[in-house]
Amino acid sequence: MNDKGNGMFEAYIICGTPRTGSTLLCKLLESTGRSGAPHSFYRRQDVAEWAEEWKLPGRDTIGEREFNIAYLKAAIAAGKGGTDVFGLRLMRENLGELSAILDQVYPGLASDTARFERAFGRVLYIHLSRENKLAQAVSLIKAQQTGLWHIAPDGTEIERVGPAQEPQYDFERIKGELAELEAYDAAWNTWFAEQGLTPLRIGYERLSADPAAALLGICEALGVQTPDAEAVRPGVAKLADETTLDWMRRYRLEAAG
Predict the structure, then answer these.
(1) pLDDT tens column, 87-107
(2) Is the alpha carbon torsion for 53, 38, 186, 96 positive or negative?
(3) Would residue 177 be called left, alpha or beta, if left means φ above 0 and alpha means ψ between -120 and 50 degrees?
């Protein structure tokens, strides 16, 4: 065990699926100033953007392995955010890719977790999931259709990835997303079992109802000083509205018919 300082862990990985409150949780953890600055550093669509932000040399100039080593070093610095703890958000679809990258950097290790511990130190695995998978699927499709992914508590837009469009109900699309989200969540649980892990489990429903309690639980597990619960201010608000509830009602009726 290669612990440093008073903390039990040197890193944590938020193991999630889309629309489970991971952005809310990442912002809460970063806001403590003690528990890292978690982001999706290994989401394939974002790697080029991060590499540019960190001013890394291109893959074509230094080669694949050298790029992956430089990227890992920069990601760890960014994910620590000036603290002693590294934070990473990882969606199930990116797990295999991250393991393959680390296998190239640290060849010969026997498992995914062995590679993660070699790269990041002792890791706390946080499984972030959502009990109401239908609400999760509807939330994901609405975000994809409207282009709006996150809003602040005052209603201002935090993340928009496309022009504003009216959402359109689509039974088959909801059915497909529901199946995929259930499969990804089940795949996380299979992976935890295969790796012999007991993750810290956080449900979206509890996280959104009481963000301070969820944050304090993670800080305690990490062994970092817990913030004052009264001072915890969520930086992200729910996007669910009447349209969300209407789609869920319609879907249940059609699925039962």
Answers:
(1) 999 999 999 999 999 999 999
(2) positive
(3) alpha
Q: The tokens of 70 are what? A: 């430089």
Helix and strand counts by DSSP (H, E) for the chain: 11, 6
Report the predicted TM-score, pTM, of the whole model to 2 decimal places.
0.89
The answer to whether the beta carbons of residues 37 and 78 sit under 8 Å apart is yes
How many CA atoms lie within 13 Å of 138's alpha carbon, on the beta-carbon side? 20
Say which DSSP state 94 is in: G
Region of 121 on the Ramachandran plot (φ > 0 left; ψ -120 to 50 alpha; else beta): left
Find residue 88's DSSP bridge partners. Answer: 13, 39
Helix (H, G, I), strand (E, B) or coil at 11: strand
Give all domains of the chain, ordered by start, each with its CATH number: 11-256 (3.40.50.300)
CA-based nearest residue to 18, from 172, 245, 190, 183: 183
* Tens digit of each residue's pLDDT (9 = 90 or more) over 205-250: 999 889 899 999 999 999 998 877 666 666 566 666 888 999 999 9
Which residues, listed in sequence order, are joined to residue 234 by a DSSP beta bridge? none
- Residue 219's SS3 state is helix
Count other Cβ atoms within 10 Å, centred on residue 221.
Answer: 14
Closest CA to 90 of 40, 45, 128: 40
Phi, psi (degrees; rounded to nearest 5) at 13: -125, 120
